[in-house]
Design brief:
By secondary structure, this protein is mainly alpha-helical. It contains eight helices and no strands. It is about 75% helix and about 0% strand.
């Protein structure tokens, strides 16, 4: 379920207007990416948030922050970040964000189900819809297809 979270090469930022801002942002992001890969989540999150102060609307930062929050099992917060990451013209980033939205909704559905709450069904439906949107952007995404089938069972 978390292929893009665990195995992805985190996205570095290249498309920024100011060269010095781009350099500083790229350095912070690269360092945060290394920390993320070492599972130093609090440190990575701080660096991503610091970078976000300089460039608050960069979708890749929202995506990376969403990945950290997901790993920390803060699924509702991760949902917010992945939704913000959709605000891009990059179809690959959109596809990954939709996939991870599916993962977050699935995990939230599991939590609600364990508490015996009927809202779990809605979260599972939202997960399926997110996986379908990921498939619209990449019809070869076998993990998204599998996750849809898994939830529907």
């Amino acid at each position: 379920m978390s292929r893009y979270l665990l195995n992805s090469t985190l996205i570095l930022l290249f498309l920024l207007s100011s060269e010095s801002v781009a350099d500083a942002l790229a350095r912070k992001t690269a360092k945060a990416n290394r920390l993320f890969k070492k599972n130093k989540l609090e440190e990575a999150l701080k660096l991503y948030r610091d970078a976000q102060i300089e460039s608050p609307e960069v979708p890749e930062l929202h995506y990376n922050i969403g990945n950290v929050l997901y790993r920390k099992k803060r699924y509702q917060e991760a949902l917010t970040e992945f939704n913000k990451a959709l605000n891009t013209n990059n179809p690959e980033l959109q596809q990954k964000a939709y996939y991870n939205l599916g993962n977050c909704n699935y995990r939230l559905g599991e939590q609600l189900l364990k508490m015996g709450k009927s809202e779990s069904i809605e979260k599972f439906k939202q997960a399926i819809e997110a996986y379908k949107k990921a498939l619209e952007l990449n019809s070869q995404d076998m993990d998204a297809k599998y996750n849809i089938e898994f939830i529907e069972k």
